[in-house]
Here is the input.
Amino acid sequence: MYLENIKGPADVKKLPMDALAVLANEMRTALLKKLSAHGGHFGPNLGFAEATIALHYVFNSPTDKIVYDVSHQTYCHKMLTGRKDAFLYPEKYDDVSGYSNPQESAHDFFTVGHTSTSVSLACGLAKARDLKGDTENIIAVIGDGSLSGGEALEGLDFASELQSNLIIVVNDNQMSIAENHGGLYRNLQLLRDTDGQAACNLFKSFGLDYVFVKDGNNLAELIPAFTSVKDSKHPVVVHICTQKGKGFAPAEQDKESWHWCMPFDPETGKSKVTFSGEDYSEITAEYLLKKMAVDKTVVAITSGTPAVLGFTEERRKQAGKQFVDVGIAEETAVALASGIAANGGKPVYGVYSTFLQRTFDQLSQDLCINNNPATILIYAASVYGMNDITHLGIYDIPMIANIPNLVYLAPTTKEEYLAMLEWSVEQQEHPVAIRVPGGEVISDGNAVDADYSRLNRFAVTENGSKTAILALGTFFPFGKRIAEKMKAETGVQPTLINPRFISGLDTDLLQELSTTHDTVITLEDGILDGGFGEKVARFYGNTRVRVLNYGYKKEFLDRYNAEDVLRENRLIPEQIAEDIISL
Amino acid sequence: MYLENIKGPADVKKLPMDALAVLANEMRTALLKKLSAHGGHFGPNLGFAEATIALHYVFNSPTDKIVYDVSHQTYCHKMLTGRKDAFLYPEKYDDVSGYSNPQESAHDFFTVGHTSTSVSLACGLAKARDLKGDTENIIAVIGDGSLSGGEALEGLDFASELQSNLIIVVNDNQMSIAENHGGLYRNLQLLRDTDGQAACNLFKSFGLDYVFVKDGNNLAELIPAFTSVKDSKHPVVVHICTQKGKGFAPAEQDKESWHWCMPFDPETGKSKVTFSGEDYSEITAEYLLKKMAVDKTVVAITSGTPAVLGFTEERRKQAGKQFVDVGIAEETAVALASGIAANGGKPVYGVYSTFLQRTFDQLSQDLCINNNPATILIYAASVYGMNDITHLGIYDIPMIANIPNLVYLAPTTKEEYLAMLEWSVEQQEHPVAIRVPGGEVISDGNAVDADYSRLNRFAVTENGSKTAILALGTFFPFGKRIAEKMKAETGVQPTLINPRFISGLDTDLLQELSTTHDTVITLEDGILDGGFGEKVARFYGNTRVRVLNYGYKKEFLDRYNAEDVLRENRLIPEQIAEDIISL
Here is the structure.
């Protein structure tokens, strides 16, 4: 096996051509073995084995610097840069992250997990090189799906201003996570159909040189192409056509399902993980499809991740024109929602908390200044969401709850979620965001007081004295447990409150509480800085009411265990009850 | 005079062709008269008179809907849609805002003041139209300078997905605020040089139809072009070439200076406003140019607004490769800065607070997760900054001070600003943002303890007892005045503290204060929600220390008077002293 002996790129360069092709297949075999046991980004990595070999064969990493977009195609790069063991030996599978990571290797230059950043980041490396008078090659790798993001398009436009070496490898596998959306994909199709000869060329229109590689899984085409642009004095795009999922038939056929995988049977492709119970994506899709059937102005929007809203291919067909995938283009998704609402439609945009960050200005300017009644559903906004440093869902409260005019809601159960969603879709007064609860779906069958038009009214679910517990969204069950424990240990029933609103305080209720309570506790599934609890602390700043805020320390976490994070931040209900009783 | 009789678009449609040309000149005369007395966006409006007439002549506003990008070219539109008086009669000049505004007129669909949003917003109007089964024309107007922004490029890419009517008027006056930067501008040049015939066409590569208008100041060309695309069933770009500053010789010649104007003498073009004293843009430019001369890795970055950093055309020449204008592309500016820092350069990005919003995700992901030592200078982050609803500078503290790893500093004087800037540029540990003070430059000649590497150390500038005043950045002089007043009225000297750090607390000092003080006051030139003061309130939540936070209510303000805003939020030092004394 060649791969076992690859300690770094120098070992790749020594191999004869026929051995390189064998190496590519060994890498795919390792991917299949690891990912079928471990899960991870599957299709994009399988397709990029030959290109990774060719890059390391032609260029001199880490002096020459390769920046990978979104990191969905970095696994082969990791194998060839001293990290093969993490792909060969099960006990070492967790030694590397799923993303490029400078702390792992000198061959990685940025921790990257959001799309569309590689060209602009690489422009920075190139600019510094030029200022210092160095001469290395700077290479940005970007997938076709990432091209539609604003930062990527800005970067392509800016790159030619450098007037120096920058090599942009466009890995065109004709797919985003789902199918691509946007006019530029028709241009890529035209370029593929004409072997790159079409005069109308997106990349050339941005002032970039252009090289086409018809078979991006063929080393005999890739190596000469990369060699031809090495040490180029101008920014140049190398457009390579690869096969997503190459070498694993189910992934070649169903590219969307195999973009990313949970552990599966490598013989059949069948997932080893089965979910039981409900999830909020399914609940949302079912709600929206019903709603769409009776109201043609209801429209669901995704930015390249239709699964967030539970819209499988079949459901997308069912929704027809009432489902819009803007591609990876979060800014346009929010602007589109605002425009639809301004013209009498009822838009619902579903997005992960971490990707909502990409559209702060559109939330503020396009949507909230204009006060248009769009609905934004925010998923994985919880410690129980994704746990990679680049995909955390614990920062959205400070980010958006402080934007004027936005009503940010925190449901605690399925019933409450659906009531809030229905209210939001039908009301015409406010832009509304809903923080979809993390963890398991809780359904208590209780009827919900759904008049959310009276903004910032908290719901008292248990009347008590001395201590009031404001337990937001996902953490409401924690509040319940704390209250029960305190009652059991002290005999005094604390007041339990479901705040429902993240973006404002129920000042009448808080005022009232201060006459009968001496301690107020806040719980939120997010960082404390800039969050909900601090608003409560400010409200009571000039009173004798004690306020204890529970949430996370402001820091970037990585590959964490949720229980550990909760414990370290003293967020386990027993810890909190202990704190309060000790007061 | 025709203009006096234009009550709405219907009156435009009635005029014969020769009268329309006269009307255009009347509109320019009105612009010259109003703006020379009042100030405003000058060059872009002068160049767009004929196109505005042609749009209203051909289309049927407000049924057909025109969305203007950034609103720099809306003044003529306002004149033709019932708001002429605000351009003809000095006593009515302030009846309209400088931006498109649905509260003023049914012919405006969004309040817009940031660039690059019109195409995506218009896509939303078009999508709602299609869902409802309506058939009106939707028109987006966008200037060439705005095309480089990520949201605009996303919108151009997405538009063709609509497969229905959308007309995108690209107003190409060959200028952004300063000169354009980016490869796409060479494509626009090619299109101008070939009368739109070049096969390599940015817009076509996004899947859009394309029409070229050589003289966009000629009604005889514009009207047929717009007529030809009216009721088009596909998205189509109408690329019109106009003259920025048309009709006023100084503005035709020096387009950058005349993009926006203060009141001036209409005979000579000489500004009527003279600034005396220093300003932070000048101070910064002088510092950076000196630094660049001795360190070739220092590089200043702007995203289309070089004046922010004080970089006039002459200084840009002097800086050479050490000054980079990425064009209107804030996302790329931050990614570029991160990349430069990652490869050993010393980047300094200068940006207005309001436009920093456009790059939240790049701050978080590209910069702060990677902890690269870039410097970001944030201007107009103050009630004394710009006062239009779309350009406010009072939201940046909640936005960025809660991003992990970012060190956000608040200098109070010129000396402290320069010390912080020098420290930031030379250190290698942290991404740093500096909140450039608002209002007049204060220079006290005092030496500054500049060891900012010990993060979150507040500076006690006056030792006292009972009350401690934490007065952040621009509001430090307020703190001083409050302390003086309290000393005078009560005989007790309060402690006065310059926090210096916005993004973290000096917990040792706060702990110490609690033993000798019963009241802590915080002052910040920003909204209270998610801000600095709330962190202090949280810190003291479980103590007997009273905390009073002073800052602004979370709301969108518009065209305010700073003193009024301060008074309404009880931020006048005398009001605060009164509050404290009354406790």
Chain A touches chain B through 117 residues (CB under 8 Å). The CA atoms of residues 291 and 298 of chain A lie 7 Å apart. Chain A has a mean pLDDT of 96. The longest strand of chain A covers residues 517-527.
